[in-house]
Amino acid sequence: xxxxxxxxxxxxxxxxxxxxxxxxxxxxxxxxxxxxxxxxxxxxxxxxxxxxxxxxxxxxxxxxxxxxxxxxxxxxxxxxxxxxxxxxxxxxxxxxxxxxxxxxxxxxxxxxxxxxxxxxxxxxxxxxxxxxxxxxxxxxxxxxxxxxxxxxxxxxxxxxxxxxxxxxxxxxxxxxxxxxxxxxxxxxxxxxxxxxxxxxxxxxxxxxxxxxxxxxxxxxxxxxxxxxxxxxxxxxxxxxxxxxxxxxxxxxxxxxxxxxxxxxxxxxxxxxxxxxxxxxxxxxxxxxxxxxxxxxxxxxxxxxxxxxxxxxxxxxxxxxxxxxxxxxxxxxxxxxxxxxxxxxxxxxxxxxxxxxxxxxxxxxxxxxxxxxxxxxxxxxxxxxxxxxxxxxxxxxxxxxxxxxxxxxxxxxxxxxxxxxxxxxxxxxxxxxxxxxxxxxxxxxxxxxxxxxxxxxxxxxxxxxxxxxxxxxxxxxxxx
Length: 479
Known about the structure:
Elements (H helix, E strand, L loop, with lengths): L1 H30 L19 E6 L10 E5 L13 E2 L2 E10 L2 E5 L33 E4 L1 H7 L5 E10 L9 H16 L13 E3 L15 H8 L4 E3 L1 H10 L3 E9 L1 H4 L3 H6 L17 H12 L5 H4 L1 H4 L3 E5 L10 H16 L4 E3 L8 H8 L4 E5 L17 E5 L8 H9 L2 E6 L2 E3 L23 H12 L3 H6 L1
Parallel strand pairs: 5-6, 7-8, 7-10, 8-9, 11-12, 11-13, 13-14, 14-15
Antiparallel strand pairs: 1-2, 3-4, 4-5, 4-10, 15-16
Helix pairs in contact: 3-13, 11-14
């Protein structure tokens, strides 16, 4: 009898030890936070499986065996897919919205950038730094337990890609600011996400602080180009945003970007260059990241095969030099210098060196403008909005933007665009050419920058164009 009891006791001890080996890791698993770091795999914000609500003994059982009451939660944690963030441009997976406030749900808020690096209070920049500081009213970091309390259950899901431009209309109603800062900056940060296949263009742009129609630029280019790139895109303004508030329900964006000018300008590079997009310029994005948008615009607006204008026509056709004149605007060349520049360009064309275009953009349809720049090799003009069109000029070994400033002045707007889409950029100070290496290290105001008497030495511009096109295939053939 003694031996039998000993054997049974031994079996019991073995079973108890085996149970412990299974149970202890299980509870360790339960107590380990599910975190989504900024280097997480895209869409890896897994659903948090359980919440440990109570651990107690059931009647008649030893206190050694805890009972775990678990509850499923409907709140996937928030993350930044592959760290897609710089000041003013942040891409989230699983971002929550309720009654106009954003919520980041995480067990460790320290893995996220500061609130001030994501957005600002919904005011114009002129309100001043102190009033622009965001609060819990605008964005909150909460854990799973707080999410259950604050956000309710069964949130409404928006499963495609959204861009929320959390800004007033002070800068939105401008071609350069919309495409050269908001969309370009977003696309640079978005391109950090390395996923199979092309990244989808956003299905909607939401403008919570802008009334209907107040985001459109004077030339009405912004909306048309959005529609051409993605025909089903929507632009939703404050009316639609307020519908979310009136619902009094939680909304979860599966993937969303928040774009905010105030947050961008808190970055030291924005202060240095006076440009919203400056923080995004330091990102290591693929060199061809903008080409899909160029190709889509050309295909949908002009009806060309998606790559033909970029890969074939640039090398086989005679190069096109497009001079965007501003002589009917408030910032323009000295009249005699403008006329001399046109004569020099005409002589260049007469030699068969290139085709020269001197469009009056305001007299052309948007389609005609894009058609022209999509076959241009060199674009030149006084610093101004027309140079934003270089976004749709194909990049090549010869593509160049020549930007004319009042001597000594330098703004980074179109240099950043050139760098982003693969064009060589030169600033011109009358008879002096300034490369990126020689350019000022910060934006520089100069007398006459906004005036009507900006000088330029035409023959010098022509010499630069000759140098840039000297190796072009059509030129070598004629030689």
